[in-house]
Amino acid sequence: MDKIGKKEPSLGIKTLVLVAIMFSCGLLGSGLLLCLALLGGMDLSSGMDIFNSMTDLQLRPYIKTGVGLNHLSMFSLSAILFAYWLKRDKWKSYFQTLDINLELLSKFVVVLFLAYPLIGLSALALEQIDLPQWMDSMDEESVDSLMKMLQMDGVGDLIVNLIIIALLPAIGEELLFRGVIQSELVKKINNPHLAIFLASAIFSGFHMQIQGFVPKLIIGLVLGYSYYWTKSIWYPMAIHFVNNGLQTVILFFAGDELESTQETAETPNILFLFIVVIISCFLCYRLVKHIKEQIDEKNIKYT
Q1: Quick check: 181 and 199 in contact, CB under 8 A?
Q2: Least CB-packed of 1, 78, 161, 181 within 10 Å?
Q3: Burial (CB count within 10 angstroms: exposed 0-12, middle 13-18, buried 19+), residue 237
Q4: pLDDT digits (tens, 9 = 90+) for 142-158
Q5: What confidence score (pLDDT) does residue 253 get?
Q6: In DSSP terms, which residues pair with 232 in a beta bridge?
Q7: Helix (H, G, I), strand (E, B) or coil at 209
Q8: Sequence-distant (≥ 6) Cβ neighbours of residue 136 within 8 angstroms
Q9: Is 73 within 8 Å of 32 (Cβ atoms)?
Q10: Cα angle at 155 between 63 and 77, to 5 degrees?
Q11: 280, 117 in Cβ contact below 8 A?
Q12: What's the pTM?
């Protein structure tokens, strides 16, 4: 119960309300995306889908704007509306927003980087699994849509993509998956580690990539623990932005070279990869332990 004695809704009721809000906001976002595509001159009778229309330079700004608004509606607006439904005028207090300590943030970012070898190994392992055709098609469509979004012809496109691919997801997805879903699971489940794992699994599954499920799950765990330990949504937002933004910048500067390298690349030496993963996991464990001790022992004031 809250301070005025009002009983808080059950997790089941909260889930139904959140799903209803997300469905409504998803419809709103999709409608905005479609309207902007039509405003830009997209011909629905041609049978071309929205993301395939990204090759049209005149249409591309409309579609990217629509994708950004769609994301804002689906994630940020959903999270804020849920918080408002639950807390009304005190909705801002629903999200934990202690100030950031830059030193601590940098350590969390290093943890993410140290997790990359494990992320790469898990992705490689999943690629070896012979998935059903519908799963393969779902993965290919998801990656293909993302790569079309990431087409960049200049610095202007890079800035736009940093907003759409890095900034908006960092804000919206963290408000929803960490700020709402993880927070509610932590309240309901006595084991916070299980709650963080479940929230990370939901976060990963929402991306609709079978072969990318474990890599995104690992990233979700880093984001989840950064929020749980620091009690500040700014940490997972900043880490998320660094992760997506770094990949966007690398693709901008080395996209063609990366594509040609991937086409001619041989399967990496498994023994060498395992050694790298073991070393990186050990370093990651030591750093995570240090971060936890720093937070527990010093009771950091985030400045």
Answers
A1: yes
A2: 1
A3: buried
A4: 777 777 778 888 898 89
A5: 87
A6: 97
A7: coil
A8: none
A9: yes
A10: 40
A11: yes
A12: 0.89
* Sign of CA pseudo-dihedral 188, 189, 193, 199: negative
90, amino acid identity: K
3-state secondary structure 173-196: HHHHHHHHHHHHHHHHCCCHHHHH
d(CA 67, CA 58): 16
Q: Which two tokens stand for residue 79?
A: 């999270």
The distance in angstroms from the start CA to the end CA of the chain is 32
Tokens 């990370």 locate to 200
Q: For residues 59 and 53, give the distance between their C-alpha atoms in angstroms, rounded to a whole number.
A: 7
Cβ neighbours, 10 Å, residue 65: 18
Given phi > 0 = left and psi -120 to 50 = alpha, else beta, which region is 47?
left
**Exposure string over 269-290, b if 16+ CB within 10 A, otherwise e:** eeeeeeebbeebeeebeeebee
Residue with tokens 């890079």: 158
Structure tokens at 62: 């409309």
pLDDT in tens, 261-277: 555 556 667 888 899 99
